[in-house]
Amino acid sequence: MTISLSKGQRIDLTKTNPGLKKALIGLGWDINKYSSGQDYDLDASAFLLHADGKAKGIEDFVFYNNPKTPNGSVIHTGDNRTGEGEGDDEQIIIDFSLVPPHIHRVGISVTIHDAVARNQNFGHISNAFVRVVDAETDREIARYDLGEDFSLETAVVVCELYRHGEEWKFQAIGSGFNGGLAALCRNYGLDAQ
After folding, report:
1. d(CA 88, CA 35)
2. DSSP H helical segments within 122-172, as ranges?
């Protein structure tokens, strides 16, 4: 049975799902009726965060142009440029057994590509969600529906997966940013240039 979460809620992932080794993080969204006249290209990314809450370099940042960490612990499965179709629009796979011990959190975010130039923002997006699936059994463990909380934001930190001792937990974040990917990178300690 899937656990449905609200903003700010946390759940145990590995403790309550003892066989969970790989999590598929599925992200999806729809474009609502306020179209800007151009395609909407939303992009999922993952930030691998050290104890200070910051990423240290490109090896800690997974997105469509850097689709996996050097050891394969976090993998972006591919860029969906239109968001068409049902289900997940983009997916990130996390192998908990391979996440280096100095990584304490993995922040999952979604940004709108060229949002300012295209006059697009998350006010145009509806039915956004993130779900956590056991990648080996295809069983959905948790789901967080973001709702319509955003208006002018061009980037959203959707959730974080974090260590708690030897276990991994999930937190529904739902925090919006203006400034797109560059603002998110700065938030997580990276230079987007």
Report:
1. 21
2. none
CB burial readout 66-102, b (16+ within 10 A) else e: eeebeeebbbbbebbeebeeeebbbbbbbbbeebeee
- Rg, C-alpha atoms of the chain: 16
Please tell me whether residue 114 adopts helix, strand or coil conformation. Answer: coil
How many degrees, rounded to 5, is the angle at CA 79 between CA 89 and CA 28?
15
Q: Which pLDDT tens digit goes with each residue over 126-159?
A: 889 999 999 999 999 999 999 877 888 999 999 9
Residue 136 CB neighbours (<10 A): 12
- pTM to 2 decimals? 0.93
CB 62 within 8 A of CB 90: no
Residue 33 pLDDT exceeds 90: no
* Burial zone of 6 (CB within 10 Å; 0-12 exposed, 13-18 middle, 19+ buried): exposed
Residues in the chain: 193
Q: How far is CA 18 from the centre of its chain?
A: 23
Residue 86 and residue 137: Cα distance in Å, rounded?
A: 21
